[in-house]
Amino acid sequence: MSPHASEAAGGRTARRPRGVDPRELGFTPRRPVPWLAPFLLVSTGIRTLLAMLFGAYLDKRELQNSLDAGIARQVGPDGGLWLDYVADLGDGFNATYSVAYLIAQPELEVDGHRLPRAQTLVMGGDQVYPSAAFEAYEDRCKGPYQAALPVTPPERPTLFAVPGNHDWYDGLTAFLRLFVRSRDRHFGGWDTGQSRSYFAVELPAGWWLLGLDDQSGSYLDDPQLTYFDRVAERLGPESRVILAVPAPTWVKAVDQPTAYDSIDYFVRTIVAPTGAQVRLLISGDLHHYARYAGPDRQLITCGGGGAYLYPTHKLPERIEVPPRDTLARRASASHPYELAGRYPDAARSRRYAWGIFPRLPLRNPGFTTLLGTLHTLLMLAMAGVASNPEGIEQRLFSVPLMVMLIVTMLGAAFFAKPPSSGGKRHARHWILGVGHGLAQIGLGAAGTWAWLALPFYDWPWPLPAVAAAVLYGPVIGLVSSQLVAAYLLVAGAFGVNVNELFAGQGIEDAKAFLRLRIDPDGTLTIYPIAVDRVARDWQVNPDQSAEASWLAPRQPLRPRLAEPPTTLTP
């Protein structure tokens, strides 16, 4: 055994790496996912389509009825509990590991608060990107968390995970193999505590943590409801519930009124009859921190575990939950909720939006290359028509020109509102999409005019095509990417392509997670911990003790509170 090896709890052995080489780490640190890469766009679209068409056939939740249906219990040595919540974590290494590193430290001092390491860790969904391949889980999720907490500390922290839509892309196969196991129930230094893709955890002082799996927003299966029926037998009027769900449907219901129906059904039929109160709903999926405060509960989105930043300046200031225009025949009474906190703040979020111009081509070179290729074909088709006299030649050349014009317009329209996307299809999507398509055609016409003014088109064939590919393509691709950036900025102001505006930038900074404290008297305090800038340069940790993280940032991370702590009293 290497002298760098150390014994972990439970007899496991973890060899500490001597460098940052993947062969030393046991996994490959990955770069952030280039979300606008052409092949990724196509493959993600296909996976989404397959999930929509065959999701019911791939659904393994009914099969989980054969698995143990245990109810976990978590309590700290002082009768209270520290609990962490992190979501959307399986993306690029720098952001994911920065958050994992902070979570794994024995103690954090944040704005004068001393916050010890949590005894319970909840992963709130999308533990991997872009798809649920086992290798991706190893490199983008388990590997970084293993490096952050390589062995189990004496307090034996426990991990629970909620599956998100990206975890569902393979029908939950890899997720179940990683988080729901009958042997070797470890995830780095955390014990895995669940026996299904959903779970119930009894917490101190009458608090309960319930994690739901709604199969990417479809429905709650019968075995899951039966499981929670048994959990409900242990709830009473003195019970208070934290509900961890895959997506913040309270926000999505503004655009898609049926989005909140599954959660409302669960609360109305499982929790409410017991007299228990759902005091807190937490979710990831949107990659920021946002808190809505209402008369009876807090609704918190905290998807800042590693994925690209999602804006906060387009969040509604006020929502009604459940929405009044839901189609559900039976629904709970609607209550107003006000946006009480967000990170990053609206002004900083707007400033981030303007970064689309430099970041789009830098983060997505494949997308820029695709634009250059399409515009080169469009230019050659336009040039063929413009340089030939009327007659049979013009009719022949007009065929590829019409094809390119149709491709350009359809591509811009679908980019503004893909057929697979949910929610309301407003006229503004079509107006902006058609306007963007016309702008790209106008750019193509201008590029054709400029190209015909140069001598290259008169060279003998195939030299004009070669010159276009070598000279025209890269230039027009860059110019076209700036036109796309301008479109995204304008469309984002109208609530269209907001996700693409930020996904195209791949912003790694502005990450967040929650650290919750349940006191023995039942008081719950929520500390939203923000990291303005993640680390980008790592070194082997000088601390070689068994529990110490394998890698440490060369420049210290500086966590702070995204807003003052929120306290829920019994």
Could you characterize what this model shows?
By secondary structure, the protein is of the alpha/beta class. It has 2 domains: about 70-345 and about 510-570, Metallo-dependent phosphatases (Purple Acid Phosphatase, chain A, domain 2, 4-Layer Sandwich), CATH 3.60.21; about 355-505, no CATH class. It is built from 15 helices and 24 strands. It has a 9-stranded mixed sheet with strand order 3-11-12-13-14-16-15-18-17, with helices on one face. Strands 4, 7, 8, 9, 10, 19, 20, 23 and 24 form a 9-stranded mixed sheet that branches. The two termini are about 50 Å apart. InterPro entries: Metallo-depent_PP-like.
Features:
570 residues; alpha/beta; 2 domains; nine-stranded mixed sheet
- Our measurement of the CA-to-CA distance between the termini, rounded to an integer number of angstroms, reads 52 Å
Question: How does the helix and strand content classify structurally?
Answer: alpha/beta
Number of beta strands: 24
Quaternary state of this entry equals single chain
Radius of gyration based on Cα positions: 26 Å
CATH homologous superfamily label of the largest domain: Metallo-dependent phosphatases
Q: Please, how many helices?
A: 15
The CATH class of the largest domain, by name, is Alpha Beta
Q: What helical percentage do the residues reach?
A: 25-40%
Name the shape in a single word: globular
Main sheet: which strands, in order across? Answer: 3-11-12-13-14-16-15-18-17
